[in-house]
Each structure stands twice: as structure tokens, then as C-alpha cells.
Amino acid sequence: MPTQAKEIFEAQSKSLRELLSDNGLGLYLPPYQRPYGWGKDKVEKLLDDTLHGLKNLGDSPDSFTFLGTVITIHDVNHVTVQPIVKPEVPSKVLTVIDGQQRLSSLLILLVCLHNLIRQHSWKAFKENEPNHEDNGAVALYAETVNILQTLGTAIYEKKNFGAAPIYPRLIRAFDDQWSKDVNLKQYESPIANLIYTYSVTADAEGLTSKPSDFRPKARSAAGEGESDLIKRFVEIRAALIKLAQTKPIEELEDLPPLSVLADNIEFQRALFNHELDTALSVRLRELKDEPHAVLMRLVMFAAYVLNRIALTVVQGKDEDYAFTIFESLNTTGEPLTAFETFLPRVVMAEKIRDYQGSDAHDHMRAVQKYLNRFDVGEKLQNATRELLITFASAETGKKLSKRLPDQRTYMKDTFDRHKDSEGNRAAYLRHLSDTATFVGMTWEPAKDATRQLVGLPTSAMTDTVKLCLAFLKDLNHTIAIAPLLRFYSEAVHADEGEERDKRVADFDTAIKAITAFTVFWRATRRGTGNIDGQYRAVLAGDTLTGMGPLARQRTAAGPNRLEPGVDAVALRAELAARLTNTDSKYGGVPNLASFVAAASALPLYTISRPLTRFLLLAAYHDTVEDADRPGLIKQGKVGVSPCFTSDGWSDETHFTIEHIAPQQATSGWEEGFYSEKEIVHKLGNLVLAPGAANASLSSRPWTEKKVLYAALGATTADESKAILNGSGLTFAQSTEELAKLSRYMPHLRALGQRETEWDPTFMDERAAVLLRLAYLRLKDWLGLEWSDSVTDSAVHRVADEFEPAEDELNGTGAGIVGQRTADGWVTSRG
Fold first, then answer.
1. Among 773, 472, 772, which residue's Cα sits nearest to residue 621?
2. In this structure, which of 27, 68, 250, 713 has its CB flanked by the most CB atoms within 10 Å?
3. Quick check: 830 pLDDT over 50?
4. Which of 514, 510, 507, 512 lies closest to 459, judged by CA?
5. 531-559, pLDDT tens digit by residue?
6. For residues 716-738, b (16+ Cβ closer than 10 Å) or e, as one string?
7. By its UniProt entry, which PANTHER family does this protein fall under (predicted)?
8. How many whole angstroms separate alpha carbon 32 and alpha carbon 9?
């Protein structure tokens, strides 16, 4: 007979009292649950929803405050409970799969109510039971005692014997242990410690002693989440005191007047499950701000919390079924991330009793450490999506979508392949951990943190590696993370010594190859040109050179499929092959001339500013002014003018992109720059200059602008002042201010040495020089040795991507790409 749904799980709607006061109940938080993390806004919403429901109850006796679904495993055999004193475990253990934040917050609320009602009962009745002749006071006292008993049983259970008979209703795995033996009981987690500490005190004081004013404080060695938990306790306590004293709270509704409770029998029955004593109702109509009124308001609120806050409690038959339900439900209004639904599978595979302290636990903590940076909600969802997309690319070469169901399915299916093999499972989880570490510490370190290659020698983070990482990140070239991750992961887990050194060198080779490939590819097309597809093909093993898949696993088996491998030299050769292949789906850049032709024709400034800065820095590095061609630069000696460095990349004070011919047409500039809107945004018209000098550079004519360039690129401040003073010109900034911005920058000095006009023809000549210099800087990174001739395929591809304006077709502004003739496109210079 087929299994029925009711045999797999049961779901019951229960009031908070019905759930927590169940005799023998213990709620248990497994080790993969997050620490307590509710913020003030969530607690305010909980209180406001409760107050709103209480107010509505006066009009509708069916009013409830529903707080969603709690998913649990009814752990009949206590297999999830670690550590454990088996004979002393509560008779009914519900392991909480989802809903621990709400349950913890509700228990904090109950502790606050219990404590405040005890204090105000003491004030109201002057340390003694009320006068038996005062029926109203007697009834209030009875209601108070009854609600305190109900609150108490919801917070903890007291066993009939033992030196430590107090059992908190909610405890956490590994931090806590139920036991009646004082030497074995353990309540160290923030929530269990708070409940236990209060419960022991309250139980000892009873109703005949003056109650303590419970004010918990964070312990010095407390677990994560205790600070938030205590803050929420303080906020709830303060709110309850104000509500009971009828002091308004801007964010919350008020409590209903006691007169409404006194006059509405249905309201009384809904709150207390019985009618109030007539004498008490009469008393409530008269009460205002005296202690009896404050006490009754707290009792009324507590009664609503216990009897009218409802949850749907799902009890799964076992872990498999509970986790299936867990994955399917959106119980909090915020979808669970694909990692959050994946984590229980890891715990299941490792076995809950073995999870704590395992390698798998360490790997998952590394992932959680990264994701904990992000607030729950869209930021966390986005971070998780991007992390898993990168992981899927590196793990199997799969292009994983951002859709939550797809990501959940991918993580489930790929992990299930390995869950029965300890070694394969460990490798899978280690790779996921490496992904989070690399993304969180190397690609995008936390604010004010320094980039690190965690697990590698500090020498691995060379200046060039820093430069490449900063550039790729600023370019938002996230597709590059997966291939870089593969080399990083192999280096981290390589044996110490020669093997580690080789793997570190491979990482260096790989990041240079990826960076150079990206620059050459992106600089020769308007968009990304499906560069992502090129990397995915390499990861999946669809290669031109016979290189095996770079992804850690093959997605499909086959007789001709190469095994995955991490080889930097092979990657460099594969990327070079893809760049130079003239087939339409590849790079189509087979030689230097075609690279120069394509890149100089495009408005790189509007296409990508990080790409433009990188090309210019590469071109400027260790150059000097070209005396034979004023306005241009050429290669100089090593160290003469270094700027292609990580410091150069971050130094936007001196290296901000500036247009030589202004972006908007103005006097003093040749009209050819403005015959087509993209011309001024080409590389030949761009320069890196101190951003602070923009006010003075602005839209000045060329004759004045070149003076400033010469001054800003001067070898000394005195030389800069001499140039400025000798020009006879007045600028927006003082000579002193401009001189302070100067630094020996040959590319600026060279511009100042050009005597003739700045025109589109010279702009194109300059672009060709800059691109060739950049090529010389990057070619070895990709193993290129380009010839300097143009092929038809490259020219036609450039023609397809760069369509000039009509007047340019007629010859105006002809440059490195050249002009269109009856026979097609030709280049006008080399």
C-alpha cells in the first residue's frame, strides 16, 4: 500500500501555550542552525502584530496572531541529541529545522512577562495574599498566579526529583545538555543560559519572596548571538513596561483599555478560556494607573501571547522528510537561500552526532563566515546566488542560473553524487569552502580589509597579482573567479615544498593569462563579446588545444573525454588560441595590427573605464618622451616611470581618465572631433591626469591645455612652477596648488611638447603607439608573438563593429582604422 502523507509528516496549528507547555517537551536546535540574530525591527513587528491581534480580539473573538510554520523532526530515538544523558532526555524531543529565531524571541518575551508580572504582583499585593474580603483583588491575584504558572511551564519544565530539576524548553546542540545531575547538566548557549538562569532564580523565589529584577548581561566567553539576544530582551522589557503604564510607543499600537476587557465577556473567554470574576470586572472599570491596573495589563497581554499567538507545527517522520519540507516552505517571508537548504544535507551525510568538529563542519563555517557579512534578505540572496554560480562553474563547468529552485536542485544533485563516499564528499565541500574563502578574502575582501590569498605564503600575493585582481574586480569580470579559483584551490592544498611552489607559480601564470586575454578581447569589441562563454567552454573542456576540463569534475563521461586538470601553461595556450582564432565565434585578433585597428576604432571610454585605465597604465609604464615624435612616448629603462602597479591602479589622484579634446564641442578644437559623437571617447584622445586639476584643465583650448600637461608631468615642483609662470596664463587653481599635483609623468610631458594642433589624425597615431606599448607589456602574459599585418577577417570584423558617421566615410577624421573605399575597408597606417 502506498505511503500516505500523514505517515510522512503531520501539521497542527497550536497556540504558544499548547506547543510549549506540552508535558515532557524539549525543543532542540541542531548544530547547523544560525546563532540568534533577530534585529530590533523584527522584535518590534512581533510586538506590534501581537498588540494588533489583541486589539482585534475585542471585536472578533476569532482573532489570532499567526506567526507561520515551525518545521521539526520528532526525534523518537534521540539520534540528533548531542551530547546526551540518555535516561534523562525529555520524553518528546522536537529538533527544530526551521523557526528557531521566532521560538527564541517568543521565549525571551515569555521570560520578560514572567519576571515583570512577578515584580508587579509583589507591588500590587504588598508582599501578601490579598484580603479575602476584597473579591476583586482576590480574583486578580488568582488570575496572576494562574498566568505565572502557565508562563513558567512554557519557559521550563521542572522534574520531580534531582539536584538540577529545571529543564529549559529550548537548548542547542553541543553547547547544552539536559540532565538532572548538577555535574552533567550544561546550558551554555545564549538562549538556554538565559532561560535556565532566570528559571532557577524564579523557581527558588516562588511567590512568597521579593522577586529579583532579572537583567541578563553578556558573558565574556559567550557564544555568537548572545549580544543580540540580550539587546532584544532589554528592548522587549522596556516596551512591556511602557505598555503596562499606558505610555505611548511610536512604533507600536496601545494595549486595549481595561474597561473594554471588563465589559466584553467574549473577549474574556477568548483570552483566558473563562469569564472573569464579576468583582474583578467591576474593579477593572475603575482602575487607572495604580499597581493593580499595571499588573492586569501585563496579565492580559501575557494571556494573549500564550493563548492567541498561533504557529503551525510540522513534525516530520525523519530527517529526510523534514528536510524535504524545509526546502519547500517559505516560512518567514524571506526565501531560504540555496545554501541554507543545502546545509542540512551536509549534516545528514556526516551524521548529526559526528558533524560538530568534523572537516565538513569547518568547511561549512567558512562559507557561513563569508555569507554572514550580508543582511538577511535580498543582499544575502544575491551574495549566495553569485557564490553558487561561481562554485558551479568551477566544480562542473555548469552555467548555473540565478533562479533559487535551480540552485537548490544543483546543490542537491551534485552533492548526492558524493554523499556516500567520505573522500569525494570531503573534496566537494572543501571546494565549496575554497570558493567562499577566495571570493570573500581575495576577490572582494570585507570593507577596510586587505586582499589575501588565505593558505598561501604572503609572497604569492605579488604586486602584479594585486594589480590583476583589482582590475578584474573593478571590471566586474566575475566569470574570471572560477578559473582563478581552480588554481588557488590546487595551490592551497598542494604539499609543502616544490609542489606548493609550482602551484603558486601556476596561479601567477594563470591570473596574468586571464587578465591579458580579457584586456585584448574586451578592447576589440563594443560589448563583452560573449567572453563568459569562452571561459565556460574552457571550464567544461570544450577546448581548441586539447586541454582537459578546468572544472574540478567532468559533467559527463565519454571515451574521448580528457580528465580535468589544472595546468597554467595549457590555459595560457588555450586562451591565446581563442583570441587569435578568426572563426566568428572566437576572438578574431590574429595579429598586432588587427588588435590596434579594432581597439583604436572603439570609444573605449564609454565601453569600459576600468579597461581604459588598465590599457593606459600598461602603455605608460617605464616610458619616456619620444623626442623624434613630439606628443608621443616610447619605452624607456626599467624603473624610469613605473605606474603599471597595484599602487598605480589605486592612485586615482594622479591617474584619472581625462579627455584631451573636450567631450563637448568648444572653441579652440578642430571640428573633426565632433563630426561623430564617439570620436572623443577613443583611446587616442584619452589621458591619465590628476583628477584635482580638472577644474583648471576643463574645456580650455589645446594651446593652453598642453601647458598644464607639461606642468603636471614635470620632473620637479620648481619646474612645474616655471612652466606655469612662464606661460602667462591664469588658471582656476593657483600655481602652488597645481605644482603640488605635479609628478614626473612622461605621458603628460610628451603632450606638452607637441607644438602643432591636436587633431583626429594625430589622435589615431597616438592610439596606435599606446596600444603597441600596452601589447608589449602584456604579450608575454598570454604567450603572444604577433606579426604586424592585417588580415581580411580582422578588418571586416572591425568594420561590422565600428560604423562611422557619414562625414567620416567621406574622409573627415580618417585615422588608424582608415576609410571606406569601393573595395572595402583599408587601414591608413600600420
1. 773
2. 713
3. no
4. 507
5. 999 999 999 999 999 999 999 997 655 44
6. ebebbbebbeebeeebebebeeb
7. DUF5655 DOMAIN-CONTAINING PROTEIN (PTHR35149:SF1), SLL5132 PROTEIN (PTHR35149)
8. 22
Report the C-alpha gap between 116 and 244 in whole angstroms.
10
Beta strands 92-98 and 25-29, pairing class = parallel
Ranges 221-225, 347-351, 635-639, 772-776: which has the least confidence: 221-225
Per residue in 712-749, pLDDT (tens digit) is: 999 999 999 999 999 888 888 888 888 888 889 999 99
Structural contact between residues 388 and 339, judged by C-beta atoms closer than 8 angstroms: yes
Residue 801, pLDDT above cutoff 70: no
Longest CA–CA span in the chain (Å) reads 116
- Region 248-271: mean pLDDT is 92
For residue 760, say if its preceding peptide bond is cis, omega within 30 degrees of 0: no
Q: Are 135 and 277 in contact (CB under 8 A)?
A: yes
Can you tell me the distance from the alpha carbon of 28 to that of 189, in angstroms, rounded to the nearest whole number?
12
What Å distances lie between residue 4 and 8, 10, 71, 72, 200, CA to CA? 7, 11, 19, 19, 44
Give the integer Cα–Cα distance in Å for 70 and 299: 26
Phi, psi of 12 (to 5 degrees): -130, 135
The Cα–Cα gap between 785 and 572 comes to 13
The alpha carbon of 234 is separated from its chain's Cα centroid by a whole number of angstroms, namely: 29
**Strands 92-98, 186-187: pairing kind:** unpaired
* DSSP string across 277-341: PHHHHHHHHH--SSHHHHHHHHHHHHHHHHHHEEEEEEEESSHHHHHHHHHH---SSSPPPHHHH
Angle between helices 226-244 and 100-125 (to 10 degrees): 40
Q: DSSP class of residue 443?
A: I
Element (H, E) at 712: helix 702-712
- Within 10 Å of residue 772's Cβ, how many Cβ atoms? 19
Residues shown for the chain: 830
DSSP β-ladder status, 820-821 and 824-825: antiparallel
Are 73 and 322 in contact by the 8 Å Cβ rule? The answer is: yes
Q: Report whether 662 contacts 669 (CB < 8 A).
A: yes
Give the count of beta carbons closer than 10 Å to the beta carbon of residue 573: 19
Report residue 304 as a C-alpha cell. 494573549
Q: Reduce the DSSP state of residue 86 to 3 states and report it.
A: helix
pLDDT tens digits, one per residue of 448-473: 899 999 999 999 999 999 999 999 99
List CB contacts of 756: < 8 A, sequence separation 6 or more: 762
pTM of this prediction exceeds 0.90: no
Alpha-helical regions (H) of 743-786: 746-752, 760-782
List Cα–Cα distances, 280 to 149, 236, 276, 822, in angstroms. Answer: 20, 28, 7, 104
DSSP track, 22-58:
STTEEEEE-TTSPPP---HHHHHHHHHHHHHHHHHHT
